[in-house]
Amino acid sequence: MSRGYLLGLDGGSSSTKAVIFDTQGNVVGIGRESSRLEHPQAHWVERDMNVAWTSAAESIRAALAAAGLEGGEILAVGVTAHGDGLYPLDRKGEPLGHAITSLDSRAAGIVERWCQQGIRDEALARIGQMPFAFSPVTLLAWLRANQPERYAALAHVLTCKDWLRFKLTGEIATDFTEASTGYTDVNTQRYSRDALSMLGIASVFEALPDVRLPEEVAGQVCESAARATGLKAGTPVATGLHDVTASAVGLGNVASDTLTIAAGTFSINEVFSDAPKPDPRWATRNGLRPGQWLNMAISPASSSNLEWFHRQWGQPGDGGTGAFFAEMEASLDAAFRSPSRLVYHPFLYGSPYDEPASAGLFGLQGWHDRGHVLRAILEGVVFNHRVHVDALASTFAIERVRITGGGSHSPRLAQLFADSLGRPLETSRIQEAAAWGAAICAGVAAEVFPSIASATSLCEVDHRYNPDSERQAACQQGFERYQRLIEGMRTLWATLDVEASPPDSPDTSAESTPTMGARR
Protein backbone atom coordinates (compact mmCIF):
# COMPACT_ATOMS: atom_id res chain seq x y z
CA MET A 1 0.00 0.00 0.00
CA SER A 2 1.08 3.58 -0.61
CA ARG A 3 2.54 5.63 2.19
CA GLY A 4 0.52 8.62 3.25
CA TYR A 5 -2.92 9.32 4.62
CA LEU A 6 -6.56 9.37 3.55
CA LEU A 7 -9.15 11.92 4.63
CA GLY A 8 -12.82 11.11 5.08
CA LEU A 9 -15.12 14.15 5.32
CA ASP A 10 -18.43 13.32 6.99
CA GLY A 11 -21.11 16.02 6.87
CA GLY A 12 -23.80 15.51 9.49
CA SER A 13 -27.06 17.41 9.83
CA SER A 14 -25.68 19.95 12.29
CA SER A 15 -21.92 19.39 12.28
CA THR A 16 -19.15 18.16 10.01
CA LYS A 17 -16.35 15.80 10.95
CA ALA A 18 -13.05 15.32 9.15
CA VAL A 19 -11.15 12.14 9.99
CA ILE A 20 -7.62 11.36 8.81
CA PHE A 21 -6.68 7.67 8.56
CA ASP A 22 -3.49 5.87 7.73
CA THR A 23 -3.79 3.26 5.00
CA GLN A 24 -4.52 0.54 7.59
CA GLY A 25 -7.66 2.33 8.80
CA ASN A 26 -6.18 3.74 11.99
CA VAL A 27 -7.40 7.21 13.00
CA VAL A 28 -4.56 9.73 13.27
CA GLY A 29 -6.54 12.95 13.55
CA ILE A 30 -10.13 14.18 13.92
CA GLY A 31 -11.63 17.63 13.52
CA ARG A 32 -15.26 18.47 14.21
CA GLU A 33 -17.12 21.75 13.72
CA SER A 34 -20.79 22.51 14.23
CA SER A 35 -23.11 24.52 12.02
CA ARG A 36 -26.38 25.63 13.53
CA LEU A 37 -29.69 24.23 12.37
CA GLU A 38 -32.44 26.83 11.94
CA HIS A 39 -36.14 26.34 12.70
CA PRO A 40 -37.91 29.30 11.06
CA GLN A 41 -41.30 27.71 11.71
CA ALA A 42 -42.90 24.45 12.79
CA HIS A 43 -41.64 21.43 10.84
CA TRP A 44 -38.95 23.45 9.01
CA VAL A 45 -35.31 22.48 9.68
CA GLU A 46 -32.79 24.39 7.56
CA ARG A 47 -29.11 25.28 7.51
CA ASP A 48 -27.01 27.96 5.87
CA MET A 49 -25.09 26.21 3.08
CA ASN A 50 -22.10 28.56 3.26
CA VAL A 51 -21.85 28.02 7.01
CA ALA A 52 -21.93 24.27 6.37
CA TRP A 53 -18.97 24.63 4.00
CA THR A 54 -17.08 26.84 6.45
CA SER A 55 -17.60 24.19 9.13
CA ALA A 56 -16.27 21.52 6.77
CA ALA A 57 -13.18 23.59 5.91
CA GLU A 58 -12.46 24.29 9.57
CA SER A 59 -12.91 20.63 10.49
CA ILE A 60 -10.31 19.66 7.87
CA ARG A 61 -7.86 22.22 9.26
CA ALA A 62 -8.50 20.91 12.77
CA ALA A 63 -7.96 17.29 11.68
CA LEU A 64 -4.64 18.18 10.02
CA ALA A 65 -3.54 19.99 13.18
CA ALA A 66 -4.61 17.09 15.41
CA ALA A 67 -2.66 14.66 13.22
CA GLY A 68 0.36 16.96 12.99
CA LEU A 69 0.28 16.68 9.18
CA GLU A 70 0.72 19.00 6.23
CA GLY A 71 -1.95 19.06 3.55
CA GLY A 72 0.44 17.55 1.01
CA GLU A 73 0.60 14.32 3.04
CA ILE A 74 -3.06 13.56 2.25
CA LEU A 75 -3.19 11.18 -0.71
CA ALA A 76 -6.88 11.70 -1.46
CA VAL A 77 -10.16 12.90 0.04
CA GLY A 78 -13.46 11.06 0.17
CA VAL A 79 -16.75 12.75 1.03
CA THR A 80 -19.92 11.51 2.65
CA ALA A 81 -22.79 13.33 4.34
CA HIS A 82 -26.35 13.02 5.50
CA GLY A 83 -28.62 11.89 2.71
CA ASP A 84 -31.91 13.28 1.44
CA GLY A 85 -32.86 16.87 2.11
CA LEU A 86 -32.16 19.48 -0.58
CA TYR A 87 -29.13 21.70 -1.28
CA PRO A 88 -30.24 23.84 -4.27
CA LEU A 89 -27.95 25.99 -6.44
CA ASP A 90 -28.71 28.78 -8.88
CA ARG A 91 -27.18 29.25 -12.33
CA LYS A 92 -24.08 30.90 -10.83
CA GLY A 93 -23.42 27.93 -8.56
CA GLU A 94 -24.52 29.86 -5.48
CA PRO A 95 -26.91 28.59 -2.80
CA LEU A 96 -30.52 29.18 -3.74
CA GLY A 97 -31.60 29.98 -0.20
CA HIS A 98 -30.93 27.76 2.78
CA ALA A 99 -30.59 24.00 2.52
CA ILE A 100 -33.59 21.97 3.67
CA THR A 101 -32.27 19.17 5.87
CA SER A 102 -33.47 15.60 6.23
CA LEU A 103 -35.02 16.45 9.61
CA ASP A 104 -37.50 18.77 7.85
CA SER A 105 -41.13 17.66 7.51
CA ARG A 106 -42.76 20.66 5.79
CA ALA A 107 -43.65 18.50 2.78
CA ALA A 108 -45.77 16.00 4.71
CA GLY A 109 -48.88 17.39 3.01
CA ILE A 110 -47.39 16.56 -0.40
CA VAL A 111 -46.81 12.97 0.69
CA GLU A 112 -50.34 12.71 2.06
CA ARG A 113 -51.81 14.10 -1.15
CA TRP A 114 -49.83 11.65 -3.27
CA CYS A 115 -51.07 8.83 -1.07
CA GLN A 116 -54.69 9.96 -1.44
CA GLN A 117 -54.30 10.01 -5.21
CA GLY A 118 -53.66 6.26 -5.08
CA ILE A 119 -50.30 6.14 -6.85
CA ARG A 120 -48.46 4.45 -3.97
CA ASP A 121 -47.96 1.14 -5.74
CA GLU A 122 -46.87 2.81 -8.97
CA ALA A 123 -44.20 4.85 -7.20
CA LEU A 124 -42.94 1.85 -5.27
CA ALA A 125 -42.69 -0.23 -8.43
CA ARG A 126 -41.09 2.53 -10.51
CA ILE A 127 -38.57 4.18 -8.17
CA GLY A 128 -38.27 1.47 -5.51
CA GLN A 129 -39.49 3.62 -2.63
CA MET A 130 -42.31 5.72 -1.36
CA PRO A 131 -40.99 9.28 -1.08
CA PHE A 132 -40.77 10.59 2.45
CA ALA A 133 -41.38 14.18 3.47
CA PHE A 134 -37.60 14.72 3.56
CA SER A 135 -36.91 13.08 0.17
CA PRO A 136 -35.38 15.46 -2.39
CA VAL A 137 -38.16 14.75 -4.87
CA THR A 138 -40.84 15.57 -2.30
CA LEU A 139 -39.11 18.80 -1.31
CA LEU A 140 -38.85 19.76 -4.98
CA ALA A 141 -42.58 19.17 -5.38
CA TRP A 142 -43.11 21.35 -2.31
CA LEU A 143 -40.91 24.09 -3.82
CA ARG A 144 -42.87 23.99 -7.05
CA ALA A 145 -46.15 24.33 -5.17
CA ASN A 146 -45.11 26.89 -2.56
CA GLN A 147 -42.05 28.75 -3.85
CA PRO A 148 -42.45 28.70 -7.66
CA GLU A 149 -39.88 31.45 -8.29
CA ARG A 150 -37.24 29.56 -6.36
CA TYR A 151 -38.20 26.36 -8.16
CA ALA A 152 -37.87 28.07 -11.55
CA ALA A 153 -34.40 29.37 -10.63
CA LEU A 154 -33.00 25.88 -9.89
CA ALA A 155 -29.87 25.05 -11.86
CA HIS A 156 -28.49 22.18 -9.78
CA VAL A 157 -30.16 19.98 -7.18
CA LEU A 158 -27.58 18.57 -4.79
CA THR A 159 -27.40 16.79 -1.48
CA CYS A 160 -25.07 17.75 1.37
CA LYS A 161 -22.18 15.56 0.20
CA ASP A 162 -22.34 16.92 -3.33
CA TRP A 163 -22.38 20.51 -2.05
CA LEU A 164 -19.29 19.95 0.09
CA ARG A 165 -17.47 18.20 -2.76
CA PHE A 166 -18.44 21.03 -5.13
CA LYS A 167 -16.85 23.51 -2.74
CA LEU A 168 -13.73 21.34 -2.56
CA THR A 169 -13.36 20.90 -6.32
CA GLY A 170 -15.61 23.31 -8.20
CA GLU A 171 -17.11 20.29 -10.02
CA ILE A 172 -20.83 19.43 -10.02
CA ALA A 173 -21.56 15.70 -9.71
CA THR A 174 -23.29 13.08 -7.62
CA ASP A 175 -22.58 9.43 -7.00
CA PHE A 176 -24.38 6.24 -7.95
CA THR A 177 -25.86 5.73 -4.46
CA GLU A 178 -27.22 9.25 -3.97
CA ALA A 179 -28.65 9.48 -7.50
CA SER A 180 -31.34 7.00 -6.45
CA THR A 181 -33.15 9.17 -3.91
CA GLY A 182 -36.24 9.20 -6.14
CA TYR A 183 -34.72 10.26 -9.46
CA THR A 184 -33.95 6.79 -10.87
CA ASP A 185 -35.87 3.82 -12.19
CA VAL A 186 -35.36 1.01 -9.67
CA ASN A 187 -34.72 -1.56 -12.41
CA THR A 188 -32.44 0.38 -14.76
CA GLN A 189 -30.77 2.33 -11.90
CA ARG A 190 -30.63 5.38 -14.19
CA TYR A 191 -32.32 8.78 -14.08
CA SER A 192 -35.91 8.50 -15.25
CA ARG A 193 -37.88 11.33 -16.86
CA ASP A 194 -41.00 9.22 -16.42
CA ALA A 195 -40.39 8.96 -12.67
CA LEU A 196 -40.02 12.74 -12.37
CA SER A 197 -43.16 13.27 -14.43
CA MET A 198 -44.99 10.89 -12.14
CA LEU A 199 -43.92 13.08 -9.22
CA GLY A 200 -44.91 16.31 -10.93
CA ILE A 201 -41.36 17.68 -11.26
CA ALA A 202 -40.38 16.74 -14.83
CA SER A 203 -38.53 20.02 -15.38
CA VAL A 204 -35.99 19.08 -12.68
CA PHE A 205 -34.42 16.52 -15.02
CA GLU A 206 -32.12 19.14 -16.54
CA ALA A 207 -30.86 20.16 -13.08
CA LEU A 208 -29.73 16.68 -12.08
CA PRO A 209 -25.94 16.29 -11.70
CA ASP A 210 -23.80 13.82 -13.64
CA VAL A 211 -23.52 10.43 -11.93
CA ARG A 212 -20.20 8.77 -11.10
CA LEU A 213 -19.25 5.72 -9.09
CA PRO A 214 -18.29 6.35 -5.45
CA GLU A 215 -14.61 5.48 -5.93
CA GLU A 216 -14.06 7.53 -9.09
CA VAL A 217 -12.04 10.74 -9.02
CA ALA A 218 -14.63 13.53 -9.23
CA GLY A 219 -12.15 16.40 -9.22
CA GLN A 220 -9.14 17.84 -7.42
CA VAL A 221 -8.92 20.23 -4.50
CA CYS A 222 -9.14 23.69 -6.07
CA GLU A 223 -7.03 26.70 -5.08
CA SER A 224 -9.76 28.40 -3.04
CA ALA A 225 -10.52 25.18 -1.16
CA ALA A 226 -6.82 24.65 -0.51
CA ARG A 227 -6.60 28.08 1.10
CA ALA A 228 -9.67 27.38 3.22
CA THR A 229 -8.76 23.85 4.35
CA GLY A 230 -4.98 23.56 4.38
CA LEU A 231 -5.12 20.74 1.84
CA LYS A 232 -2.81 20.79 -1.16
CA ALA A 233 -4.35 22.04 -4.41
CA GLY A 234 -4.61 19.19 -6.88
CA THR A 235 -5.28 16.49 -4.25
CA PRO A 236 -7.73 14.00 -5.80
CA VAL A 237 -11.26 13.95 -4.40
CA ALA A 238 -13.38 10.80 -4.81
CA THR A 239 -17.06 11.11 -5.63
CA GLY A 240 -17.96 9.56 -2.29
CA LEU A 241 -21.31 8.19 -1.23
CA HIS A 242 -24.40 8.64 0.93
CA ASP A 243 -23.50 8.28 4.63
CA VAL A 244 -25.90 5.37 5.06
CA THR A 245 -23.96 3.41 2.45
CA ALA A 246 -20.64 4.76 3.73
CA SER A 247 -21.36 3.30 7.16
CA ALA A 248 -21.87 -0.16 5.65
CA VAL A 249 -18.63 0.13 3.68
CA GLY A 250 -16.75 1.41 6.74
CA LEU A 251 -17.90 -1.62 8.74
CA GLY A 252 -16.84 -3.98 5.95
CA ASN A 253 -20.46 -4.90 5.19
CA VAL A 254 -20.57 -5.15 1.40
CA ALA A 255 -22.03 -8.67 1.14
CA SER A 256 -25.73 -9.43 0.86
CA ASP A 257 -25.90 -11.51 4.06
CA THR A 258 -24.83 -8.78 6.49
CA LEU A 259 -27.15 -6.24 8.08
CA THR A 260 -25.78 -2.83 9.01
CA ILE A 261 -27.29 -0.83 11.86
CA ALA A 262 -26.27 2.82 12.14
CA ALA A 263 -27.69 4.38 15.29
CA GLY A 264 -27.14 8.01 14.44
CA THR A 265 -29.58 10.88 14.04
CA PHE A 266 -31.64 8.46 11.94
CA SER A 267 -32.44 4.86 12.71
CA ILE A 268 -30.61 3.25 9.79
CA ASN A 269 -31.01 -0.46 9.05
CA GLU A 270 -29.79 -1.76 5.70
CA VAL A 271 -28.76 -4.76 3.66
CA PHE A 272 -27.40 -5.10 0.12
CA SER A 273 -29.06 -7.36 -2.45
CA ASP A 274 -28.30 -8.50 -6.00
CA ALA A 275 -31.87 -7.89 -7.16
CA PRO A 276 -34.37 -5.10 -6.43
CA LYS A 277 -37.02 -6.09 -3.89
CA PRO A 278 -39.19 -3.00 -3.33
CA ASP A 279 -41.42 -3.02 -0.27
CA PRO A 280 -43.40 -0.28 1.50
CA ARG A 281 -41.33 -0.89 4.62
CA TRP A 282 -38.00 0.17 3.09
CA ALA A 283 -36.43 2.15 0.27
CA THR A 284 -34.70 0.17 -2.46
CA ARG A 285 -31.85 2.33 -3.72
CA ASN A 286 -28.68 1.82 -5.74
CA GLY A 287 -25.82 -0.11 -4.19
CA LEU A 288 -22.13 0.48 -4.83
CA ARG A 289 -22.27 -0.55 -8.48
CA PRO A 290 -24.77 -1.36 -11.23
CA GLY A 291 -26.49 -4.64 -10.48
CA GLN A 292 -26.42 -4.12 -6.71
CA TRP A 293 -29.13 -2.53 -4.56
CA LEU A 294 -29.25 -1.25 -0.98
CA ASN A 295 -32.43 -1.84 0.98
CA MET A 296 -32.79 0.85 3.66
CA ALA A 297 -35.38 0.73 6.42
CA ILE A 298 -35.04 4.10 8.11
CA SER A 299 -36.72 6.71 10.29
CA PRO A 300 -35.44 9.89 11.99
CA ALA A 301 -35.79 8.31 15.42
CA SER A 302 -32.52 7.14 16.92
CA SER A 303 -29.73 8.91 18.84
CA SER A 304 -31.29 12.34 18.20
CA ASN A 305 -33.46 11.41 21.19
CA LEU A 306 -30.36 11.11 23.40
CA GLU A 307 -29.08 14.45 22.17
CA TRP A 308 -32.47 15.98 23.00
CA PHE A 309 -32.35 14.45 26.49
CA HIS A 310 -28.92 15.98 27.05
CA ARG A 311 -30.08 19.40 25.85
CA GLN A 312 -32.94 19.35 28.32
CA TRP A 313 -31.19 17.95 31.40
CA GLY A 314 -27.49 18.52 30.82
CA GLN A 315 -25.62 21.51 32.18
CA PRO A 316 -23.48 24.08 30.36
CA GLY A 317 -19.87 22.97 30.35
CA ASP A 318 -20.68 19.38 31.34
CA GLY A 319 -18.37 18.03 28.65
CA GLY A 320 -21.00 17.24 26.04
CA THR A 321 -23.36 14.34 25.41
CA GLY A 322 -20.78 11.58 25.98
CA ALA A 323 -19.54 12.96 29.29
CA PHE A 324 -23.11 13.58 30.43
CA PHE A 325 -24.13 9.97 29.86
CA ALA A 326 -20.92 8.71 31.47
CA GLU A 327 -21.89 10.71 34.56
CA MET A 328 -25.33 9.03 34.47
CA GLU A 329 -23.94 5.46 34.43
CA ALA A 330 -24.68 4.92 38.15
CA SER A 331 -28.30 6.03 37.68
CA LEU A 332 -28.62 3.77 34.64
CA ASP A 333 -27.17 0.81 36.56
CA ALA A 334 -29.83 1.23 39.21
CA ALA A 335 -32.59 1.64 36.61
CA PHE A 336 -31.57 -1.54 34.73
CA ARG A 337 -31.32 -3.63 37.91
CA SER A 338 -35.06 -3.55 38.53
CA PRO A 339 -38.01 -4.35 36.25
CA SER A 340 -39.46 -1.39 34.38
CA ARG A 341 -42.70 -0.80 32.53
CA LEU A 342 -41.84 2.69 31.30
CA VAL A 343 -42.29 2.98 27.54
CA TYR A 344 -40.86 5.69 25.32
CA HIS A 345 -41.80 6.36 21.69
CA PRO A 346 -38.74 8.05 20.06
CA PHE A 347 -40.62 10.08 17.47
CA LEU A 348 -39.31 13.59 18.12
CA TYR A 349 -38.57 14.16 14.43
CA GLY A 350 -40.56 11.42 12.71
CA SER A 351 -41.41 7.74 12.71
CA PRO A 352 -41.95 4.69 10.47
CA TYR A 353 -45.70 5.32 10.44
CA ASP A 354 -48.06 7.16 8.08
CA GLU A 355 -49.74 9.03 10.92
CA PRO A 356 -48.16 12.25 12.31
CA ALA A 357 -46.50 10.45 15.21
CA SER A 358 -45.05 12.30 18.18
CA ALA A 359 -42.73 11.21 20.97
CA GLY A 360 -44.30 9.97 24.18
CA LEU A 361 -43.29 8.67 27.62
CA PHE A 362 -45.82 6.28 29.15
CA GLY A 363 -46.13 4.90 32.67
CA LEU A 364 -44.21 7.69 34.40
CA GLN A 365 -44.66 7.82 38.19
CA GLY A 366 -43.39 10.13 40.90
CA TRP A 367 -40.64 7.76 42.06
CA HIS A 368 -39.00 7.55 38.64
CA ASP A 369 -35.78 9.54 38.19
CA ARG A 370 -33.54 10.52 35.27
CA GLY A 371 -32.03 7.04 35.15
CA HIS A 372 -35.42 5.39 34.61
CA VAL A 373 -36.33 7.91 31.91
CA LEU A 374 -32.99 7.46 30.13
CA ARG A 375 -33.40 3.70 30.22
CA ALA A 376 -36.83 4.04 28.62
CA ILE A 377 -35.37 6.30 25.92
CA LEU A 378 -32.59 3.80 25.15
CA GLU A 379 -35.10 0.98 24.93
CA GLY A 380 -37.46 3.02 22.75
CA VAL A 381 -34.65 3.83 20.32
CA VAL A 382 -33.60 0.16 20.14
CA PHE A 383 -37.21 -1.01 19.71
CA ASN A 384 -37.68 1.39 16.80
CA HIS A 385 -34.58 -0.13 15.18
CA ARG A 386 -36.09 -3.57 15.76
CA VAL A 387 -39.24 -2.64 13.82
CA HIS A 388 -37.03 -1.94 10.80
CA VAL A 389 -34.75 -4.96 11.31
CA ASP A 390 -37.70 -7.35 11.61
CA ALA A 391 -39.09 -5.98 8.34
CA LEU A 392 -35.84 -6.57 6.46
CA ALA A 393 -35.34 -10.01 8.01
CA SER A 394 -38.74 -11.06 6.68
CA THR A 395 -37.33 -10.92 3.11
CA PHE A 396 -33.53 -11.04 3.24
CA ALA A 397 -31.37 -13.87 4.62
CA ILE A 398 -29.28 -12.16 7.30
CA GLU A 399 -26.34 -14.06 8.74
CA ARG A 400 -24.48 -11.25 10.53
CA VAL A 401 -25.36 -7.94 12.14
CA ARG A 402 -22.86 -5.12 12.69
CA ILE A 403 -23.56 -1.79 14.34
CA THR A 404 -22.04 1.68 14.40
CA GLY A 405 -22.93 5.16 15.67
CA GLY A 406 -24.88 6.51 18.62
CA GLY A 407 -22.71 5.09 21.39
CA SER A 408 -22.87 1.58 19.91
CA HIS A 409 -19.38 0.88 21.33
CA SER A 410 -20.95 1.19 24.78
CA PRO A 411 -21.23 -2.42 26.03
CA ARG A 412 -24.57 -1.57 27.67
CA LEU A 413 -26.17 -0.30 24.48
CA ALA A 414 -24.65 -2.98 22.23
CA GLN A 415 -25.92 -5.70 24.58
CA LEU A 416 -29.35 -4.06 24.65
CA PHE A 417 -29.44 -4.26 20.85
CA ALA A 418 -28.43 -7.95 20.91
CA ASP A 419 -31.02 -8.81 23.56
CA SER A 420 -33.80 -6.84 21.85
CA LEU A 421 -33.10 -8.14 18.34
CA GLY A 422 -32.43 -11.68 19.53
CA ARG A 423 -29.36 -11.82 17.29
CA PRO A 424 -25.61 -11.81 17.87
CA LEU A 425 -24.24 -8.35 17.25
CA GLU A 426 -20.74 -7.31 16.17
CA THR A 427 -18.88 -4.05 16.57
CA SER A 428 -15.88 -3.12 14.46
CA ARG A 429 -12.55 -1.67 15.54
CA ILE A 430 -13.41 1.14 13.10
CA GLN A 431 -15.40 3.59 15.22
CA GLU A 432 -15.67 6.31 12.54
CA ALA A 433 -17.37 3.99 10.07
CA ALA A 434 -18.97 6.55 7.72
CA ALA A 435 -15.77 8.60 7.45
CA TRP A 436 -13.75 5.41 6.88
CA GLY A 437 -16.20 4.37 4.14
CA ALA A 438 -15.56 7.70 2.42
CA ALA A 439 -11.81 7.31 2.98
CA ILE A 440 -11.91 3.84 1.38
CA CYS A 441 -13.41 5.45 -1.74
CA ALA A 442 -10.56 7.97 -1.62
CA GLY A 443 -8.07 5.12 -1.30
CA VAL A 444 -9.40 3.40 -4.41
CA ALA A 445 -9.36 6.71 -6.29
CA ALA A 446 -5.70 7.19 -5.29
CA GLU A 447 -4.87 3.55 -6.16
CA VAL A 448 -4.04 2.74 -2.54
CA PHE A 449 -6.63 -0.07 -2.66
CA PRO A 450 -7.51 -2.06 -5.79
CA SER A 451 -11.24 -1.99 -4.95
CA ILE A 452 -13.72 -1.13 -2.22
CA ALA A 453 -14.20 -4.81 -1.40
CA SER A 454 -10.46 -5.38 -0.95
CA ALA A 455 -10.26 -2.64 1.70
CA THR A 456 -13.02 -4.12 3.84
CA SER A 457 -10.56 -6.74 5.13
CA LEU A 458 -9.23 -3.95 7.36
CA CYS A 459 -12.57 -3.69 9.19
CA GLU A 460 -11.96 -6.36 11.83
CA VAL A 461 -14.55 -7.21 14.47
CA ASP A 462 -13.53 -6.05 17.93
CA HIS A 463 -16.39 -7.53 19.96
CA ARG A 464 -19.34 -9.88 19.57
CA TYR A 465 -22.40 -9.58 21.82
CA ASN A 466 -24.65 -12.64 22.17
CA PRO A 467 -28.25 -12.39 23.39
CA ASP A 468 -28.79 -13.27 27.05
CA SER A 469 -31.87 -15.50 27.30
CA GLU A 470 -33.23 -13.89 30.48
CA ARG A 471 -32.72 -10.32 29.28
CA GLN A 472 -34.03 -11.27 25.84
CA ALA A 473 -37.33 -12.40 27.39
CA ALA A 474 -37.64 -9.11 29.30
CA CYS A 475 -36.87 -7.13 26.13
CA GLN A 476 -39.52 -9.09 24.26
CA GLN A 477 -42.12 -8.14 26.87
CA GLY A 478 -41.02 -4.51 26.66
CA PHE A 479 -41.19 -4.56 22.87
CA GLU A 480 -44.72 -5.97 22.95
CA ARG A 481 -45.83 -3.14 25.31
CA TYR A 482 -44.14 -0.65 22.99
CA GLN A 483 -46.04 -2.05 19.99
CA ARG A 484 -49.40 -2.15 21.77
CA LEU A 485 -49.04 1.49 22.79
CA ILE A 486 -48.21 2.45 19.19
CA GLU A 487 -51.39 0.80 17.99
CA GLY A 488 -53.33 2.60 20.69
CA MET A 489 -51.81 5.98 19.79
CA ARG A 490 -52.14 5.83 16.00
CA THR A 491 -55.67 7.24 15.99
CA LEU A 492 -54.70 9.94 18.53
CA TRP A 493 -51.46 11.33 17.06
CA ALA A 494 -53.27 13.69 14.68
CA THR A 495 -55.18 15.25 17.55
CA LEU A 496 -51.86 16.10 19.25
CA ASP A 497 -50.32 17.77 16.19
CA VAL A 498 -51.56 21.30 15.54
CA GLU A 499 -49.81 21.16 12.17
CA ALA A 500 -51.29 17.80 11.18
CA SER A 501 -53.62 19.42 8.67
CA PRO A 502 -51.57 22.13 6.95
CA PRO A 503 -53.35 24.75 4.88
CA ASP A 504 -53.97 23.75 1.30
CA SER A 505 -51.00 24.59 -0.90
CA PRO A 506 -51.23 25.56 -4.56
CA ASP A 507 -52.34 22.84 -6.96
CA THR A 508 -49.50 20.55 -8.09
CA SER A 509 -51.28 18.71 -10.87
CA ALA A 510 -49.98 20.70 -13.84
CA GLU A 511 -46.86 18.57 -14.22
CA SER A 512 -48.59 15.64 -12.47
CA THR A 513 -48.03 14.12 -9.00
CA PRO A 514 -48.04 10.99 -6.61
CA THR A 515 -46.76 8.60 -3.96
CA MET A 516 -46.55 8.38 -0.29
CA GLY A 517 -44.33 7.43 2.56
CA ALA A 518 -44.26 7.38 6.32
CA ARG A 519 -45.13 10.76 7.77
CA ARG A 520 -41.87 12.38 8.95
Please provide a written account of the structure.
With 520 residues, the chain is of the alpha/beta class. 36% of the residues lie in helices and 19% in strands. It is built from 18 helices and 22 strands. The protein has helices at residues 49-67, 108-116, 120-127, 136-146, 148-152, 160-169, 193-198, 223-229, 243-250, 304-313, 320-327, 329-337, 370-393, 411-421, 433-445, 452-455, 469-489, 493-496; strands at 5-11, 15-22, 27-34, 46-47, 74-81, 87-89, 99-100, 156-158, 174-175, 211-212, 217-220, 236-238, 241-242, 258-263, 267-273, 283-286, 293-299, 343-345, 360-362, 400-404, 425-428, 461-465. A seven-stranded mixed β-sheet has the order 16-17-15-14-20-21-22, sandwiched between helices. The longest helix is centred in the C-terminal third of the chain and has 24 residues, at 370-393. The chain starts with a strand and ends in a 24-residue tail after the last helix. Mean pLDDT is 91; it is low at 500-520.
List the keywords.
globular, 18 helices, 22 strands, 520 residues, five-stranded mixed sheet, 36% helix, disordered C terminus, alpha/beta
